[in-house]
Amino acid sequence: MSSSTVWRNWSRIESVTPARVAYPSSPDEVVQAIAAARADGLRVKPIGAGHSFTGIAVAPGVQLDLRNLQGVLAVDEQRHRVKLAAGTHLYRLPELLKPYGLALQNMGDIDAQTIAGATSTGTHGTGHAFGGLATQIVALTLATADGRVLEISENSNPELLDAARLGLGALGVLLDITVQCVPAFQLQAIEKPEPLAEVLAQWEQRALGADHFEFYWFPHTQTALTKTNTRLPMDAPRKPLGGFQRWMDDDFMSNTVFNWVCHVGKAAPALTPPINRLAQRLTNNREFTDVSTSVFTTKREVRFREMEYALPREEVPDVLRALDRLITQNGWRISFPVEVRVAAPDDIWLSTAHGRESGYVAIHRFFKEDPHTYFRLAEQIFRAHGGRPHWGKMHYQDASTLAPTYPRFGDFLAVRDKLDPERVFANDYLDRVLGA
């Protein structure tokens, strides 16, 4: 235990001063910290990288910092399964999995999160045949409010698996996670600007026609910056970006220059449209082949706030057109791009892709700009098209509006009542989205 200071999440939109902070280095110490918190009448919340944009990890009571629970705990090489300590950061996975010739089947574009935080909030990548991170989890261990260490897998408490592998931190503290990996692979990446109207007109064809497809749209332009990735075996010819080109594109242009652009846009909003048009013209056409993690993930140093909604896949073009009209009609100057991705349906109870082919639309604002007016009106569009908000990104819904969009919402609440009837793991955010 230690005295606490102010904790802030990465986007600097949430902060709290916990009553105390614990740094457990073993499952037993997690259980002890939970017991001590209950004895003092305090709630418990674990934290990872603080990369959620909501208050899901805010801990006014006891904050469990899981930095000492990292690394590979066990490997089933025959079945390609790897057990990881819950505090393991995603950016460490390439080095941890390389000795076994394994990789995650799919990843998002940010790897700063811990694996526990990423799965608990529904982190996902893109690809019509691939689900989010939680779909890759086959087992986990949970420290519960009553002091138990609960193993959950296909063979042990299987009825809890689809609740616990995307549990919002509401059911207990994740201690370890077993991931179904795949043999390491490469991705051929083709990145190029294309007319937005054509991409939207061909949306279903583009989404289904590649292993991994996504695009970015800078408001005030009519260009989509498309990314098409094709899976290749590790023995395929490798053609990585040169060191200077990667630095120029992914570090200097995407971070240093873009940070300058965002500051200019805040100081002089009228300059945002021409700057966005210049940015889309300067975006390089590039094609390269590299190991999957070097293609899936990108370096993000410019702070922002984000809202992302999962939609029925076929709704994406109409939603983008409505966003364009909304921005134009309000005269807003939006410097950050809109990101569009796709994912396979799954059976996980609180997954945003539960039971349907899904498209994802994410909107952003520079962290020094007020996002709320833009986000609230955009959310009306998302909800009108059947959207479900990403649990780790900003939204304004509560349990009364979320429950009808998830067929198993009531089942999840029943599991929560069973595992945490006294709401030891609750906080204000969970009280809002799940009910107190």
TrEMBL record:
Top-level division of the source organism's lineage: Bacteria
Q: Which residues form the FAD-binding PCMH-type domain?
A: 14-184
- UniProt keyword terms in alphabetical order: Oxidoreductase
What are the TM regions of this chain, as residue ranges? Answer: none
Q: Name one GO cellular component term.
A: membrane
Enumerate the Pfam families for this protein.
Answer: ALO (PF04030), FAD_binding_4 (PF01565)
Entry's Gene Ontology molecular function annotations: D-arabinono-1,4-lactone oxidase activity; FAD binding; L-gulono-1,4-lactone dehydrogenase activity
Q: Which NCBIfam families does this UniProt record tie to the protein?
A: bact_FAD_ox
| Protein name as it appears in the record | FAD-linked oxidoreductase
What organism is the protein native to? Catellatospora citrea
Q: What does the organism's lineage look like at the top?
A: Bacteria, Bacillati, Actinomycetota, Actinomycetes, Micromonosporales
